[in-house]
UniProtKB/TrEMBL annotation:
InterPro entries: ATPase_NBD (IPR043129), ROK (IPR000600), WH-like_DNA-bd_sf (IPR036388), WH_DNA-bd_sf (IPR036390)
Protein name (Swiss-Prot/TrEMBL): Transcriptional regulator
Keywords (A to Z) from UniProt: Carbohydrate metabolism, Xylose metabolism
Record flagged with keyword Transferase: no
Chain's role: Transcriptional repressor of xylose-utilizing enzymes.
Family: Belongs to the ROK (NagC/XylR) family.
Length: 379
């Protein structure tokens, strides 16, 4: 599989495009493929036979007849190769093993603590990958994808200097190079918000074209897909969205500015606000407290979050906004207030914007990281 996908020769490009199209359609007949690729019937027959002989695709039953015999359907062989998806977040690290249909075969995780320096973390990731490969008898991998807190250097696979990591030493960590040497496969690093957006894009059959994916919690991270492709920032800092100003001359931010979205919406901002009112609280209180003072701060946060998202909508023009985070899933009142605030502060558009929760939850970042590994062979 890796040899086939890595072959960039002109002769192989059409076969790769054919394979990719079968992968996207899941099951498809030769007649449908002929309509899409406009090649002679003999050429299509030869390419399908070649992909079948190499164990990359297979016959998958029959479709509905249209007057004659029912057509043979083709699908990819999902276990022809496997990919690893990794999430490195502020609170935990997840490792997932996926087949080529993006189905999770196995997974593992650990909480991110003060002792998890880069060396300790990468060793644990290495051990988890090898344990998954041994458990599911995977002889080799197609590649490894990583979704991490930024800022990052995507081109060189380096985690630069992530904010608010519990452990020290996370500056200029060449994690891509390290894992490439360990496993001899391509390693693709991206922001976790971007990989999560990729996962949500592929999770729905309608493949919404323009998606804004927003993660809220310890910070605000966002990823954007435009016309089916990731809109990446040069430095790879998905947290830049949290510095959108939502109140001029507002609260002081760590960036040196005032009134940034982060200072109203993050867990830290809400806890600081409660502390200033003499109400010491924890994140568990934010998630579970029914106290009116706590609820008031949470609803204030939702209001400002909606303003920030509305500003992003005015700039990016997404068709769909996907919201992810502990409060989004745990607190329906908070979620509804965010949605109402967005709708209140956006200008009228010719077509409605869909605002919804993520369908993959905590798995999105790892799944999307794995997907990006497979997709990069077709770029």
């Amino acid at each position: 599989m890796r040899d086939f996908l890595s072959d960039k020769s002109e002769k192989n490009q059409l076969k790769k495009a054919l394979y990719k199209y079968i992968h996207r359609k899941r099951r498809i007949s030769k007649a449908e493929l002929l309509k899409e690729f406009h090649v002679p019937n003999t050429t299509m027959t030869r390419m399908l036979a070649e992909l079948t002989d190499r164990g990359l695709i297979r016959q998958a039953g029959f479709g509905h007849p249209t007057g004659g015999r029912p057509p043979v359907l083709y699908e990819i062989v999902s276990d022809a190769a496997y990919v690893i998806g990794i999430e490195i977040a502020r609170t935990d690290v997840r490792v997932m093993l996926l087949n080529l249909n993006y189905e999770v075969i196995g997974n593992d995780r650990f909480s991110f603590m003060k002792q998890h320096t880069p060396q300790v973390t990468i060793e644990k990731i290495n051990d988890m990958i090898r344990a998954l490969m041994e458990r599911y008898q995977i002889p080799s991998l197609l590649g490894i994808g990583i979704g991490a807190v930024g800022p990052i250097d995507r081109e060189n696979g380096v985690i630069l200097n992530p904010e608010s990591f519990p452990a020290e030493g996370w500056r200029d960590v060449p994690i891509g190079e390290i894992l490439h040497k360990r496993f001899s496969v391509p390693v693709i690093l991206n922001n976790g918000a971007n990989t999560a957006a990729v996962a949500e894009y592929y999770a729905r059959n309608d493949h919404e074209e323009n998606i804004l994916y927003c993660i809220s919690g310890y910070g605000i991270r966002c990823g954007y897909i435009q016309e089916g492709r990731l809109f990446n920032q040069k430095q790879g800092d998905a947290t830049s969205y949290e510095h959108i100003v939502v109140e001029a001359e507002g609260r002081d931010c760590t960036c040196g500015s005032k009134g940034c979205l982060k200072t109203y919406v993050s867990f830290g901002a809400m806890l600081n606000r409660l502390d200033s009112l003499g109400i010491p609280s924890t994140i568990d209180d934010l998630l579970n407290s029914k106290e009116s003072s706590v609820r008031e701060i949470i609803m204030e946060s939702a209001h400002y979050y909606g303003i920030g998202i509305a500003n992003m909508i005015h700039i990016l023009h997404p068709d769909t906004v996907i919201l992810h985070g502990k409060l989004i899933y745990h607190d329906s009142e908070y979620y509804q207030e965010v949605v109402q605030s967005v709708n209140k502060h956006i200008c009228a558009r010719n077509h409605p914007i869909t605002i919804r929760k993520g369908v993959l939850g905590e798995k999105a970042t790892s799944i999307g990281a794995a997907i990006q590994v497979f997709e990069h062979f077709f770029e």
